[in-house]
Design a protein that fits this description.
128 residues; globular
């Protein structure tokens, strides 16, 4: 069973990244995805929820860490965190316990998610 990535997963992960200094965001992002994958594999083995990482969703992994309050969508740092999470999701497509998003070119994938979550401003950040 693969865990789908939903808008709440993206938001929770971005808020966890926003809560830490910029220098620590890449490491935390990798940690969140590794924890979610670990929990997903645990669940696939029929062992129920992972004792630390939960149900295999990115949101469950992110909520183990402090989350920043959700900022407005035009907050540049929040958009940068959101883009980092989306790129990490895209980099895991097709891997075990990866999101079921299909095979999209990078820009199409990012645009689909951004439109879905009403983060149209992030396209401007991608174009720069």
């Amino acid at each position: 069973m693969r865990r789908p990535v939903l808008p709440g997963d993206i938001s929770s992960a971005a808020r966890a990244l926003l809560h830490v200094p910029e220098a620590k965001r890449a490491r935390l992002c990798a940690c969140l995805f590794a924890g979610a994958a670990r929990a997903c594999a645990h669940m696939e083995q029929g062992m129920g929820l992972h004792p630390r990482w939960g149900d295999g969703t990115l949101s469950a992994a992110a909520r183990l860490f402090p989350l920043a309050d959700e900022p407005p969508l035009d907050d540049a740092e929040y958009l940068a965190c959101t883009i980092r999470v989306l790129r990490a999701v895209h980099g895991r497509i097709g891997k075990a316990c990866a999101p079921r998003m299909g095979r999209l070119p990078r820009d199409s994938f990012i645009m689909k998610i951004l439109l879905f979550t009403n983060l149209r401003l992030a396209k401007l950040a991608l174009d720069t």
